[in-house]
Amino acid sequence: MNSYAQKRGFLATLWDYLTTVDHKKIAILYLVAGGFFFVLGGIEALLIRVQLAVPNNDFMSADMFNQVMTMHGTTMIFLAAMPLLFALMNAVLPLQIGARDVAFPFINALGFWLFLFGGIFLNLSWFLGGAPDAGWTSYASLSLASEGKRIDFYTLGLQISGFGTLMAGINFIVTIINMRTTGMTYMRMPMFTWTTFVACSLILFAFPPLTISIFFLIFDRLFGAQFFNVDMGGNTIIWEHLFWIFGHPEVYILVLPAFGIFSEVISTFSRKRLFGYASMVFATVLIGFLGFMVWAHHMFTTGLGPIANAIFAVATMAIAVPTGIKIFNWLLTMWGGSIKLTTPMLYAVAFIPSFVIGGVTGIMNAASVADYQYHDTYFVVGHFHYVILGGVVFAVLAGLHFYWPKMFGTMLNETLGKITFWLFLIGFHLTFFVQHFLGLMGMPRRTFTFLEGQGLETGNYISSIGSVLMAVASVILVINIIITSVKNKKVGNDPWGDGRTLEWSISSPPPYYNFKQLPLVRSIDAYWHEKMEGRKEMPPAEPLGDIHMPNPSFIPFMISFGLFIAAFGAMYRPDYSWGLPVLIGGLVITFGSMLVRSLKDDLGTYIKKEELDDDKGVKA
Amino acid sequence: MVKEEIQTNNGVNVQYRRKRNKREMRHQLISFLLMIFLTLVAFFVVGYGDFSVWFVIPFILILASVQVGFQLYYFMHMSNKGHEAPALFIYSAVLVAFVTILAFITIIWI
Fold it and tell me: Which residue in B107, B108, B109, B110 has the most chain A C-beta atoms within 10 A of its own C-beta, making it the best mutation to test that interface?
């Protein structure tokens, strides 16, 4: 009767995931794909550290090093960090606001497949004549000079996956505005929902500049345009501005959801309401707003002039204020709480000092005069790894342990989780703390080797050892996941025992319609409020009735696949005669699939009330 | 008198709705005429008047933004209730676009 309850073969399961529009399954797809790219980017990081472990190393050539470090950055930002955050957003956000799915389930699936095909296209470069080699920022003067097809993999791959990200972002905005259950006012939304909302608004405003700049680069390299070619009257600086108008908000797109996850974790395991909820919301919005006024601090040495540098320096430092508000709010949430040091909580506690170090070096970089000294050295590398690993990766790991039971119905092993945590924490600080000093001693960023007797040997050696510790930690995490999946010991609704928000009021994993009856929210931390009133479940906001659900669809896969084909055509069109037909053929697949979607009525299905009565799923 | 007002259509006051529609219709007509007038002014300034470029370009840009306002508020009902979120996003985007354009004309092309 209920299709999800039946045992199924491998092919049926595969088809199920290829056509799913269910936010919980898309979350798992994002998690698997993002996890794969995270491992790939991690291997690239290890290769970098092997090359730099000893002076004058010839483990790889300078050309190879350029490819590896470019792909490490690009993969980690676009193909690992963002999808892993989308995985957590998809898994819990609709549950947190009491919705049965996101606003546009079809577009949700489309966003995932676009991201995956873009990521695969980008990584196929390894087998087709070399990977992109102009750095993850791909500055136009470098990328226009790059020979072969390398940069074309970067532009076309990121363009496709960027479309996916933009769609996912818009989808979450609409979901949060329109799909909140009765009583879930804006100021009762959980912090993770709020930070996702602001991060997705940033996606909405930040990704169009990236799309435009990448289109410029595609036209320049493949269709004979001259946007960035100085000889022909173009301007190479335009790329830098457009890229950073996207690139700086991108940092907040990553770190704001991380803040949200930590807010949930800290308040759950301090067993206290989040301190200063309203000021947290205010700080989040303010960070999002200021995030658009600061991009030029990546370009202080480009020669913008003292006035522009001063304006952007001051604006950048202003961001420290809302961030500071957040840090103090987390500390005061823990203050006087009855703290349980579970694995997610360990990550959250370790995040605060780590992120503050990254923030302080950020302020040092923001001082435009001093930045002339730091620019393009390992000091910057140390800074942004402290922010992104200490903020985003810690948050993803915390969220993974925290929400694992909600996604899969099983608990990850706490002992192994804590071992992972300690190894990762020690490895992280060993790797990156020393890089600040390497930078101050003059080691340039993106350098492929260094000479003996420059005082850089010890620091680099320590850094390489740290990276091995992080790799071991990741392996233990994978072992933990395998053991947990094999044991497959199911847990109840609220396995941590202290769940505060709506997602913990329903079974783990939730039934595919999430809520039998949409819940009535009567306070911030709705589920905790009901528990304190002595109830075990949420009061319903509607009578039991038929539930409208979307149909699965294979069309998102086909739309994305068409663009994947078209990208190959566009790339080889200047060299081979078959390029143009392939380009057109790919676009025909994409637009044909869209046409089918538009012309064929798909009204979804209804789950009948009687079916819900039989189901042992949860109430409300 | 009040009790005699028609209270049908799921409790919606039909008379009130009629009155409101009439008022909206008047607003739309007025703004439509104004928009036509502003368009004619723009054509006149560019085509017939003997004005300097430094006057014409800012002037027609201002006219254009007034027209956008008319379009959004009188024809697309942005002033009605329930349009706060779109308004917020439109104004945020305008701000971001403005800062971007400002940066491009001040620190890149000069």
Answer: B107
